[in-house]
Amino acid sequence: MTDPAQLSPLRRIVFVSLPFTFAYLLSELFRNVNAVLEPRLTAEFQLEPATMGMMTSAFLGALAGSQLFVGQALDRFGPKRVLVVTLFLAVVASALFAGAQTAHMLVLARFMIGLGLSACWTGAYKANTLWWPRERLPLVNAITIAAAGLGSLAVTSPTEWLLRQIGWREIFLGLAGVTATIALIIAAVVPPQTRERAAPAIPEPAVKGLRGVLTHPAFLTIAPASALCQGAWVAYQGLWAGVWLRDAIDLQSTAAASILMALSLAVILGQFGFGLLADRIARTDRHLFHLTFALTLGFVLCQFAVAGAGASLQPILWAGYGLFTAGPILAYALLVRLLPDAVSGRAIAMLNLGAVLTGFLMQGGIGAGIEALVRLGWSISSAHVAFIVLIAGLQAIALAWMALHQGRALGLDKVR
């Protein structure tokens, strides 16, 4: 065991935070890479939109289905051991994806990649919890989110340029090598498990606490809007934004990749900037609630604007979309304030699970829905518009619910 107090902040950054942040960055890269690869994969494998959506969403399906198990493994074995094992599964899966000869192989490999990277997000946060003082966690977590966003940035214009130099199969073989390298770095440089704050498997009485979280007014008020917005963010940044720009707006792949890069950069700036703003001005639960609501409303309005705007406004609107993703993410901090410490971890896990499940359903469902509308005679552009408006409309309803139940969320007793 290693006491965190024995390591200077610089050593904690170099030997703990950076390795796990690189793993988180890698998962963001894998999650979003299909937004740029879609034209090549569609042409080579003759993929229908529904198949493309299912293949891309397989990553999220694996992520959602594994979260409860991953959480318990991280608590029992620690992030170092869990990530080393799971990342090597991702190495095998990435090589399998590179060698795929059928659409079914793509789906299977994508699912396995999701399993292999399922501990990256929670592993990074678990490592921060173990190695940093509690009062520094908001800042450390904000930096982790912003740094990991570079993975999304890497799969825009840089990947589009790389695709012109080498094929997509070579890219995935390279990613397999990068993944193996990160796993070996974590195994080699991360110090032995720090003092154990985690317990073994959750005991039976904790089930009541989980039920209490799911039925608590704060969770019921905040979770619908946050999950719907995060799900849309995952589905569109990971695939459908690029398809929308190429098929509905009729932009060239290079122009679309540039807009996706602006979106990814805006996500990084928004998460970090609005995270610092929340730390400065959201001193009370009510202030944080209002800031979360306002930023989430901006996210919803950007989607309505995207659906109705022409090509010239798409870059600035997608950048705004990225900036306002900070709203749904602030919901995590808001829930932690409104629920007691004893159940805060489960509250975060349940909110994350809802977001991933929503993203999984949207990423696959949008493709099937667009395909169905086109068969009914709709144009590809109008089919895309219909789904953007539908999703934004559902988010608006959830936001209205959030506004109507603000008093209950902020005023009732905490979960016991």
From TrEMBL:
UniProt keyword terms in alphabetical order: Cell membrane, Membrane, Transmembrane, Transmembrane helix, Transport
Record-level GO cellular component terms: plasma membrane
Keyword set includes rRNA-binding: no
Keyword Ligase appears in the UniProt entry: no
Residue ranges of the TM segments: 12-30, 50-70, 82-100, 106-125, 137-159, 171-190, 218-236, 256-277, 289-310, 316-335, 347-370, 382-404
Compartments (UniProt record): Cell membrane
Residue ranges occupied by any Major facilitator superfamily (MFS) profile domain in the UniProt entry: 16-408
Membrane topology: Multi-pass membrane protein
Full protein name: Major facilitator superfamily (MFS) profile domain-containing protein
Taxonomic lineage: Bacteria, Pseudomonadati, Pseudomonadota, Alphaproteobacteria, Rhodobacterales
